[in-house]
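Minutes, project check-in
Item: structure for the 54-residue chain
Input as provided by the requester:
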Amino acid sequence: MFNNLPKHSVASITEKLKSATTQTHAPRVLVLYGSLREGFYSKKLALESAKILT
């Protein structure tokens, strides 16, 4: 069932990060919130964290 998934491990990811060339862009962060209604704290928190990250 899960035979087609890539084999990842902490060691393989660490090795890829160490061997990576210099990054050409700043890290990208996706901030999600769970409600589209006005006044919900998850949306307020996501917007405030986006302000801090930029």
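Outcome recorded: DSSP finds two helices and no strands in the chain.
No further action items on this chain.
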